[in-house]
Design goal:
- By secondary structure, the protein is of the alpha+beta class.
- The chain has six helices and nine strands.
- Strands 1, 2, 3, 4, 7, 8 and 9 form a seven-stranded mixed beta sheet that branches. Strands 5-6 form a two-stranded antiparallel sheet.
Length: about 200
């Protein structure tokens, strides 16, 4: 692939690796795609088509499937500063309308460069997990729209690069980092959460 540039990243930090790639890119749009994702034929065409329609859209995300079921159709805000996958477990043929969402999944997302220039890149303190939510919150605070595009289909092997135990700890840790960063006055009441870091007698 003569047009492909391979960058060496010496630190095992997902956000840092993405930021390195973004810093070397030159286009008006930037795609982040996890290494455990296989894309459909119109995956990129549909993302570009939608983001080009409206200059207020900062990011567009795909319909992520696990076999014939939906894994993710954008992200939803949940109580106590948790986030969930919109449409998870539903049939693949559902969620077929373009829609604004609370946050976009970093597993398959296309960003407008001018939006990232305004709000900044991925926060490397997150390493991985919830970094997409953090960036989504920053984009929304600056008035950018986040849009789910069902015509862009990708198949995602969830947590294909780590085990479930690592993922759960990172999600709980980064949830607290997210609260501390965006809602610092709410941190004391959010510490308990699902009791992941609480010793139970």
């Amino acid at each position: 692939y003569k047009k492909t540039t391979v960058l060496v990243n010496k630190v095992n930090n997902y956000c840092k690796a993405c930021n390195l790639g973004i810093s070397k890119s030159k286009g008006d749009y930037i795609v982040l795609l996890n290494n455990d994702v296989v894309v459909g034929k119109r995956w990129l065409i549909e993302l570009v088509k939608v983001i080009k329609r409206n200059k207020s859209i900062g990011a567009v995300t795909s319909k992520l499937l696990d076999g014939d079921t939906i894994q993710n159709a954008g992200l939803l805000t949940m109580p106590n500063f948790y986030w969930d996958e919109r449409g998870a477990g539903k049939k693949a043929r559902e969620y077929n309308s373009i829609a604004e969402v609370d946050a976009v999944s970093g597993a398959s997302v296309l960003y407008r460069r001018s939006a990232l220039d305004q709000v900044g890149l991925l926060d490397e303190d997150f390493v991985m997990f919830d970094e997409d939510v953090d960036l989504s919150l920053r984009l929304k605070k600056h008035g950018w729209k986040l849009v789910y595009v069902p015509g862009s289909v990708a198949y995602h092997k969830k947590h294909g690069s780590c085990n479930e135990r690592f993922a759960r700890e990172a999600i709980e840790r980064n949830r607290l980092l997210l609260v501390a960063k965006h809602y610092p006055s709410k941190l004391p009441s959010a510490l308990i959460g699902k009791d992941y870091f609480t010793v139970k007698k």
